[in-house]
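To the wet lab folks,

You asked to see what we're planning to order before we commit. Fair enough. Below is the target structure as tokens, and below that is the sequence we designed to fit it. If anything looks off to you, flag it before the synthesis order goes out.
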């Protein structure tokens, strides 16, 4: 992958008692150069994460971003992202990464929600592509990809992960989201 190829990594941060989660989008080039940031939010426990991430992409207004990487599929306490709808909206490949093996979200969704709230989340969750394990450096990540096949998804993840198991766009976005949340908590606004 060319050194200047850009990806937007989106991560979030919220604390107990928050009703909104801070989202950060960090644009990084494949050579690890940070090239832009955008901030937004979504509702903790809500259903607006897909729209919120789409808004980040639109607000960023960067045609040179080639890939959208997400830290997980359920930010802000099960506010599920519809990866297919997001990929259609941003017209870019979308990859959702998780960093631990798990049986999936269905048991947790059944435990935390009921009735229409459960049905809506299950429908969104079940419509997503399956997770695939990708070995990167000495770690493993689990990736759901829309707009690229499994081999290309692995190439993208590895290209943006110079060390460890977390791609740089997601690592930087997570750091910035946490800092913005702490700033918001101390000053009352972001």
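Sequence we intend to order:
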């Amino acid at each position: 992958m060319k050194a200047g190829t850009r990806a937007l990594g989106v991560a979030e941060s919220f604390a107990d008692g928050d009703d909104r989660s801070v989202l950060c989008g960090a644009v990084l080039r494949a050579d690890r150069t940070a090239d832009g940031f955008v901030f937004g939010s979504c509702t903790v426990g809500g259903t607006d994460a897909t729209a919120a991430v789409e808004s980040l992409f639109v607000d960023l207004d960067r045609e040179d971003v080639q890939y959208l990487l997400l830290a997980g599929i359920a930010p802000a306490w099960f506010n599920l992202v519809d990866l297919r709808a997001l990929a259609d909206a941003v017209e870019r490949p979308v990859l959702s990464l998780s960093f631990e093996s798990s049986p999936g979200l269905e048991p947790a969704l059944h435990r935390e929600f009921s009735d229409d709230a459960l049905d809506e989340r299950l429908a969104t969750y079940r419509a997503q592509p399956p997770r695939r394990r990708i070995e990167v450096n000495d770690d493993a990540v689990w990736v759901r990809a829309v707009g690229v096949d499994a081999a290309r998804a692995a190439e993208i993840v590895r290209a943006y992960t110079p060390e460890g198991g977390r791609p740089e766009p997601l690592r930087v976005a997570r750091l910035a989201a946490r800092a913005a949340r702490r700033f918001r908590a101390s000053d009352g606004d972001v």
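Structural context that might help your review: Residues 6-185 form a domain with the archaeoglobus fulgidus dsm 4304 fold fold (CATH 3.30.2170.10). Strands lie at 6-13, 20-29, 34-43, 65-71, 94-98, 132-136, 139-146.

Thanks,
Computational group
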